[in-house]
Amino acid sequence: MPWDILLIFFVLGVIVPWRGRARMRNILAKPRVEPAERLALYASTMVFQWVAVAVAGWRAWAHGFTAAELGLVVSGWATVAILSVLGTGSIVALQWLNLRRMGRSTSPLRAPLKAMAERILPQTRRELIPFFALAVTAGVCEEFLYRGFAMAVFFRWGLPVWIALPASSLLFGLAHLYQGRGGLAATTILGLLFGAARVAVQSLVPVMFWHTGVDLVAGVAGPKYLINNTDRSAEER
Length: 237
Fold this sequence. Notes:
The chain is mainly α. The protein has helices at 3-29, 35-62, 77-104, 110-120, 125-156, 161-175, 180-201, 205-228, 230-236. Helix 3 runs parallel beside helix 8, helix 4 crosses helix 8 and helix 5 (125-156) packs antiparallel against helix 6 (161-175).
């Protein structure tokens, strides 16, 4: 396998998890994070992801990967559109309910989630718009990197779907290691779902919408249930 492709995998599988983990450790060590710091975090993450997509896309093109191999071709617009709409609606509802459940939970596991949410999720409308841009960026860029580029490379290596799918999902999970072991497990499982859909329709379009929906709900419902905890406050009153 060409060295540049291996280098991209090294960045995705080692550098990104390590850097994310170290960055989150520094953020959690602070008593609080100022709005300007959150906005800088959103901006730097978006820049990194678009640069990563540009580099991966460039090297994929240089090695002869086709748009179809990368999941960038849509055949059967009706099916893709239905999956995009219904899948996004379903996953958004499930994400909202899950965040609401965690907000009501009295488990000790809620404390680290609250600490993380307080520092990285948007606290004001001024922060919400950049966060929405970040959610769209993650939905497009991460799906291209992990379900498009990575899976295309695995298939070029001759790996069967039952290996390529969990391998790409694990890479995706590692990218979210900053969320802890729970985040690693949850995003790996989510990656399996997204990867299966990508294989089934041979397109990244539905999973880009799904991924964006998950992150958008995190930005809206996360502060509401994990930080402000409006449901519990109402019950206590």
